Amino acid sequence: MRAKPAILLVDDEIRSLEALERTLEDDFTLFTASGAAEALAILDSEFIQVVVSDQRMPDMSGVEFLKQVRERCPQVIRIILSGYTDNADIIAAVNEAGIYQYLLKPWRPESLLLTVQGAVELFRLQQENELLNVELKSSEPWLKVRVDSKREQMRERSAMDNIVRAPDSSMSKICALLSRVAPFDISVLIEGESGVGKELLARALHYASHRRDRPFVVENCAAMPEQLLESELFGHKRGAFTGAYQDRIGLFQQADGGTIFLDEIGETSPAFQAKLLRVLQEGEIRPVGSPRPLKVNVRVVSATNKQLPELVRAGQFREDLYYRLSAFTVSVPPLRDRPQDIPLIAHSLLEEACQHYQRPAAHFGEDTLQAMQDYRWPGNVRQLRNEINRMLVLSDEDRLGAELLSAEVLQAAAEEQVAELAFLSGLPGDLKTRMEELEKQILRETLTRLRWNKTRAAAELGLSRVGLRNKLTRYGLEK
User: Fold this and answer.
1) Environment class of 16 (CB within 10 Å of its CB; exposed 0-12, middle 13-18, buried 19+)
2) How far apart are CA 154 and CA 264, in angstroms?
3) Do the beta carbons of residue 27 and residue 388 sit within 8 Å?
4) Is 1 part of any domain?
5) In this structure, are 108 and 256 located in the same domain?
6) Theoretical Cys-Cys bridge with 196: which of 110, 180, 192, 285, CB 3.0 to 4.6 Å?
7) How far is CA 447 from CA 75, 434, 463, 470, 472, in A?
8) What value does the mean pLDDT take over residues 158-169?
9) One-character DSSP codes across 222-283
10) pLDDT in tens, 166-202
11) Under a CB-based contact definition with an 8 Å cutoff, are residues 192 and 334 in contact?
12) 4-aspartylphosphate is carried by which residues (predicted)?
């Protein structure tokens, strides 16, 4: 079985360590240390991919510790947690120790989890890029073919047609719209709850465009303070602030010719929004500390789980930037609104999990799939993935029964079934009368949802136009 990514947690406060462990234990192999000396000993003996360290520790500060980590294990991704809010100190610390991201206390579990997942992905990409660079330097033609083949596989995996969905899913319309807009260099805003797959759609949009051979770069705007975000996106010059010991190329420059995906754009400050607006208007960035701007050719795709028009009305988001970002807008429905997608997505995630954990092929019981469709999935596809991984790890068989589902999912599914039975029991009359009332309600719901398009309603219900018209007349449902 393939091991989970190894994460080292360093904090001298036991309760803080326990909170970190609770947040990350399902997805990673965790090592813990209460001080820098103990942590460095673990680094010498274990293959660690990411270090998460507190800033305030008795033997040395988190920044000093992470500087030693960089010297010993430069490939390890470094994250620091602190209660300090001084932006200058934040940026200085991050650059001084080569820290991947800085999280302010009190951190949110979802932000920490996303940050560590991003760090693990960066570690993997670093290793992959090193391999690609070695292969590209080789004079052997077959190695170059191998590299080109790998990149082509990435394009195929990210194709719009490969986004898992049912034939009648509302996602099909969204994918069709994005396919239409992909060839045109206009900004796209993707709305939707956390975990619905906004980054997946943004990546598919990139690979369907003429920029497919150039970089696709991702940044979570909610994961770092404003000044650090500016440095991350626009870059900085050496000496621009304390701790800026060398020039840094920002993500906009790295994405030149390609696409940048700005997730959680609604979390940015008005001051940062003004600088981003200039990038969109002028096509140029100004690195922190630079006397002159730099031209960049980047397509901006942004995403939010908030209602930006409401933030505009509240004065929390610039109206001019909103219209720049939302030249084309799509809204991704939550998983609970497309239950027909759940079995297909679940099977796809199970196949991935079996490959990742090197387990034999497995399948779901019918009761399991039904319970999954009855649950509302507030965390959407991300929560569904975690649930499936958990089930696979707990199972000793190739069939995953409903008993492996977490109590939260099972209880909610049961409550949905009880509510459904309560609705049926509330219908008046004998069996024939109840069936007619139920049929009437189904007709009304279908026509309302389809905006009284009778052709579509008849097709969905398996009726002829004449049959549908007769039923509408019978139940008095003419619009």
Assistant:
1) middle
2) 25
3) no
4) no
5) no
6) 192
7) 58, 20, 13, 14, 10
8) 86
9) TSS-HHHHHHHHH-B-TTSSTT--S-B--HHHHTTTSEEEEETGGGS-HHHHHHHHHHHHHS
10) 988 999 999 999 999 999 999 999 999 999 999 999 9
11) yes
12) 54
Cis peptide before 106 (omega within 30 of 0): yes
| pLDDT (mean) for 426-441 | 79
Each residue's pLDDT tens digit, 229-249? 888 899 888 777 766 666 778
- The confidence band for 454, taking pLDDT boundaries of 50, 70 and 90, is confident
Lookup: tokens for 90: 């934040």
Q: Which residues pair with 9 in a beta bridge?
A: 32, 52
Mean pLDDT of 402-415: 78
Domain of 475 in residue numbering reads as: 427-479
For residue 226, the number of C-alpha atoms closer than 13 Å in the C-beta half-sphere is 14
Q: Is 141 a domain residue?
A: no
Residue pair 76/50 in contact (Cβ under 8 Å)? The answer is: yes
Q: Are residues 321 and 343 in the same domain?
A: no
Looking at the structure, do residues 318 and 342 belong to the same domain, yes or no?
Answer: no
pLDDT tens-digit series, residues 457-473? 888 888 888 888 888 88
Q: Choose the final residue of a domain: 394, 418, 442.
A: 418
* C-alpha triplet 81, 87, 92: angle, nearest 5°: 75
Rg (CA), the chain: 26
Q: Say how many domains are in the chain.
A: 4
Same-domain check for residues 251 and 264: yes
Pairing outcome for strands 294-295 and 284-285: antiparallel
pLDDT tens readout for residues 306-349: 999 999 999 999 999 999 999 999 999 999 999 999 999 999 99
In terms of Cβ atoms closer than 10 Å to its own Cβ (0-12, 13-18, 19+), residue 187 is middle
pLDDT for the residue numbered 142: 47
Half-sphere exposure of 105 (CA within 13 A, CB side): 12
Residue 149 lies in a domain: no
Cα distance between residue 464 and residue 466, in whole Å: 5
- Write the pLDDT tens digit of every residue in 340-397: 999 999 999 999 999 888 899 999 998 899 889 888 899 999 999 999 999 998 898 9
Coil vs helix vs strand at 113:
helix
Residues 6+ apart with CB under 8 A from 358: 1, 2
The domain that contains 43 carries what CATH number?
Answer: 3.40.50.2300
- Residue in the block written with tokens 């999954």: 372
